[in-house]
Amino acid sequence: MTSPTYQLHHACIYEKNPRDAMWTWLRWYHGIPAYYWEGYADMHQTSEGGVDYTFLACGGPFQMQLEAGPYQFEYERQWFAEHDSGINHICWIVPDALATVDHLQQAGATVAMPYEEFGGTYNGFVAIDLEGRWIEIMEYVGGFKTPDVEFHPVGHVGLQTLGHVQLCRDLDDQVEWYSRVLGQRVILDSRSSNDGLVYLADDTYGVRECVTVLATPATEAERALVEQHGPCISTILYQAADVEQAWRDALAAGFSEVSAPAHDDRIGCRTGYVREPSGNLVQIRERLAA
After folding, report:
1. Structural domains of the chain sorted by starting position, each given as residue range(s) with its CATH number in brackets
2. Going by DSSP bridges, is the β-strand pair 281-286/232-240 parallel, antiparallel, or unpaired?
3. pLDDT exceeding 90 applies to what percent of the chain?
4. CB neighbours of 7 closer than 8 A, spacing ≥ 6?
5. Which of 13, 154, 269, 270 is deepest in the core (most CB within 10 A)?
């Protein structure tokens, strides 16, 4: 069969107090392109429960979705009981979600949430990759679509979402799987002996500057996450024209300090880290060369 086209869309962050947490993001150049809050009459009400979503964006196509408990499905509640607040999954948009079920299963993924149609707005399911990270597959139908933001740098620091980082147990294997199965292409390769990191992009890269980074742990904060959770989605990745000021602005907005900007030999640029309210890492790097 022809491989589906997978287009990166958002990271879902499970957050106990999304109304409080979102102000930290909003003070740091972010906006709210969409929200679906408790009691909102929309397609997110299911037989198992309602939902509380707030989408956040900052000058790029990759978005964050803050989601509050009790969550829609039992399998989600089980994940939260084990991992607490954190990045639960990455969402990919495809032309035909139902066809993608077989494609991913044949490639070795398992299904956490079976395919479901949500009221003529979107269809989708949740799969688990070979190392246990969750992948949401979604197909828009009808006129529904979570709004995009204009893809221009925000503020005087030129801040933009760039994508996310996934920490891997077997980096070479995961790069091969995401390239072969999800059709991602390598745009930056900094590996040696199955260690390091790789930047991957979908076929919209160039119009939508949006990347997935697969990496082995390189910092104490990353090693602690892997020790606690195993292979995981660890980091929201940003780029900025002024990394130092963007990092200072993040601290002023309420993010907590992890490490000040410094040269990263793996990617050849300055990069700094903060931690957002749910505990996820946030990396701010110099702009990625086209």
Report:
1. 7-140 (3.10.180.10), 160-286 (3.10.180.10)
2. parallel
3. 69
4. 92, 93, 94, 202, 203, 204, 208
5. 13
